[in-house]
Amino acid sequence: MSGNVLVAGGAGYIGAHACKALARAGYTPVTVDNLTTGWAPAVRFGPLEVADLMDRARLDEVFARWRPVAVMHFASLSQVGEAERDPGRYWRENINASLTLIEAMIAAGCANLIFSSTCATYGDQDGVMLDEDTAQRPANAYGASKRAIEEMIGHFAASAGLRPVIFRYFNVAGADPEGETAEFHDPETHLILLLLDVAAGRRPSLTLFGTDYPTPDGTCIRDYLHVSDLVEAHLLGLERLLAGEVSRVFCLGSGRGFSVREVIEAARAVTGHAIPVAVGPRRPGDAARLVCGSHRAGRELGWQPARSSLAAMIEDGWRAHRDLLPRFWHRNDGKESE
Ligand code: UDP
Question: What residue stretches are annotated with the NAD-dependent epimerase/dehydratase domain (predicted)?
Fold first, then answer.
């Protein structure tokens, strides 16, 4: 395994974990990130090109310099709540960034693309297990922008020789088990990270968004997958592309759903903290239940989630949150984060 892999969004949570996995497998991960939501200190496993994906001239330079064998595209605005408040930004930036990146790839003769899509492209589906053939009916602007990019990729595959692997992620959680990189967002919106913030004394309580969903305990059900398992699938997808096999869509989830209340209990057990919870209204755009019912990645890529128990994800996240973030995480301007 060798060659440069361009990692769009490599300074973000999943991108940084992917860079570590790529470097370990013998590739050179070249991060392209504008550092608006990514963190320069997270780029530890290969070079960093600070560039905006909507800047075609900069992308052309980056492709000419590194001549990547493939692109992994993690860069995206990805918060459901924010997407509901400002849908225009999600349509404009997610679509334009992906379009510019794909056109730069085609111009540079780099055809292999691994694209991060999402189970948010499915929307509310009345309790069905979701797989690659489930109709996509996104319930929010984030999911809608990702579905549109999937469609765009299909057109470039059909007419311009693009060779994509599309992964539809369910909820990604946890951190590098070796403690070298972690999950961190500013502002934080993700359930498990907010629970860890409360346990660490950084927030007084968690607001639970809705207890009147049509689920057994009334709270939303999600399928959580360890970030290490997720990036492992990306390496297998990359091998598939480099071996010349056909393009595919794969759902990536553990196949088990946990309610928000179950996640809260697991976080209490792992951290030993009472974690106070206040019940609030539903968050607009949230689907009641999103659980992966696909085994395609197992069958075709030989992928199996190995570390995706709720306890392991929260333990790895908690260790990184407690040990790594306060010591090593610096803001992009060089000042230490709180
Ligand atoms: N959630 C919550 N309180 C919070 C943040 C999230 O109750 O402060 C719920 C949210 O409504 C959803 C689940 O936790 O049902 C997971 O949300 P997250 O934002 O982590 O991921 P998403 O499912 O939106 O990708």
Answer: 5-253
